[in-house]
Amino acid sequence: MSWDRHRGDPSAAPEAEPATGQPIAVGPGEPERARLRGEVLLGALEERTEGARRHGDAVASYAFATAVELRLDRDACLLVREAARLHEVGKIYVRDESHPAAGCRLARGAGVPELVCEWILHCTERFDAGEGARAAGSDIPLPSRIIAAACEYDVLLGAYTGGSLAGRRWALIGVIEEAGKLDPMVVDALARVVERASEGT
Question: What CATH number labels 30-199?
Fold first, then answer.
């Protein structure tokens, strides 16, 4: 997907301000550093769980498009994409709900930018809070909320006959019905992305 416009997406390139009104300060070269440092982690995860890279790449694509839709600036969108690609690397070592914390530690140890590590840590937090929640609502970093919605969509898409048009619609309905778990603003943005892509097929 190109930055300015992807196939089937009529939206123009976003402005510099994200939907929250709070810019995300991305350091020079951080998206590329996240990609390069995260590659070894993705390789290890794929060895442990076949298909993990495909899921990570799919979530990265949906997260990037959603970040663009929410008008985050260019470098922030690129960094969200890399964080989404790495969101399950903690499963290299643990398979339970503690994998975001493990992923955060692994990414930090691999030299992945700190923002990405933080977003990984919070990517399974419920928007309406949950047992043992570290954060809820707008206290969850926006990129983590984007990754959560993108991940949910890809998981449901796999359950509804892959990338068929009907499957995409059912998966989107499933995401929309996750009331409370996901940020409604992010879900709305993801829905616009999916609907435009569906219209282009």
Answer: 1.10.3210.10
